[in-house]
Amino acid sequence: MQFSMAVFLLHLIFLTTFLQSLAAQQTCDACGLNNVCSLNSNRRPTCECPKGFSLLHSNDPNGDCKPDFSPSCDEVYSKDQFDFNVLSDIDWPGGDYATTVPSNKEECKTSCLKDCFCAVAIYRSRQCWKKKLPLSDGRTDVTLNVTAFLKYRKGDRPPRCPPL
Predict the structure, then answer these.
(1) Cβ contacts of residue 2 below 8 Å, gap of 6+?
(2) What is the pLDDT of residue 82?
(3) How far is CA 4 from CA 10, 17, 142, 164, in A?
(4) What pLDDT is recorded for position 2?
(5) Distance between CA atoms of 98 and 94, rounded to whole angstroms?
(6) Could you say which DSSP state residue 57 is in?
(7) What residue range is the signal peptide (predicted)?
(8) Do the beta carbons of residue 108 and residue 123 sit within 8 Å?
(9) pLDDT of res. 152
């Protein structure tokens, strides 16, 4: 009888975690492009532009965020012009245009740096997902266990908002 109760409790815990995750996903669809959603202590969504981005319309905190730099793939593209904001537990799921299996975070970051289309690289469990602008469905979740490398051009207007 104890074994059955233990199995039941494990299923209940799994179901509860799954439903909470699903609710967070649906709730966080409220944020615009390039924006990042997190749930506050009341489990209500809060949208915030990541470092290096600002609101397209300052009166719409849930709206789209625009880069504070000029993304470009012109012939003078040089990896020396760019650097990264490193963000923990933030992802923009979906929309990957390339996936690689690097041996470490540094290779993931370097792969994005060498690619003029790459706006952010997401590293998790020895895998790297590259994404280009615009980014959609951004979310913060401590269970993600990911590192995001958000690329910005050096020398452009410095990031205004603090990192998430």
Answers:
(1) none
(2) 85
(3) 10, 20, 31, 43
(4) 62
(5) 11
(6) S
(7) 1-24
(8) yes
(9) 84
- CA atoms within 13 Å, Cβ hemisphere of 164: 29
Q: Say how many residues make up the chain.
A: 164
Give the pLDDT confidence score for residue 75 in this predicted structure.
63
CB within 8 Å of 130: residues ≥ 6 apart: 96, 97, 98, 99, 100, 111, 112, 115, 117, 118, 120, 121
Give kind and range of the element (H or E) at residue 26: helix 2-27
Nearest Cα to Cα of residue 47 among 150, 158, 133, 140: 140
In the chain, which residues have pLDDT < 50? 7-8, 10-12, 15-26, 158-163
pLDDT for position 12: 47
Coil vs helix vs strand at 86: strand
**Upstream peptide bond of 134 is cis (omega within 30 degrees of 0):** yes
Sorted by where each starts, the structural domains of the chain and their CATH numbers stand as: 2-153 (3.50.4.10)
Secondary structure (DSSP) of 95-163: -EEEEE--SSHHHHHHHHHT-TT-SEEEEETTEEEEE-SSP-SEEE-TTS--EEEEEEETTSSPP-SPP
pLDDT in the model for residue 71: 73
Max Cα–Cα distance, the chain, nearest Å: 70
Encoded tokens for 78:
């040089």
